[in-house]
Amino acid sequence: RLHTATGNHLVRIPISTLEERWSAGFVRIHRSYLVAMRHVDEVRTDGGRCVVVIAGADLVASRRMAPTLRDLLRQRRSGDSS
Prior knowledge:
Radius of gyration: 13 Å
Mean pLDDT: 83
Number of helices: 2
Oligomer: single chain
Largest sheet: 3 strands, antiparallel
Strand order of the largest sheet: 5-6-7
Number of strands: 7
């Protein structure tokens, strides 16, 4: 499913294909989730799990992606302040 500001849409394309096509600004946080980094509000650890918050929704990220997510969020924040 693709979740947008206008609604939810069924997409019949493998997430790996979308990940390749949408490489700029998108990051895979879990085998089931590909998110637009500009919409990530927070990345936090909650009970040992890495959680990505987007528009108030908590998405559990894979442990493997936690360091990458934190680095990307840090880069985005430092880019916003320049």
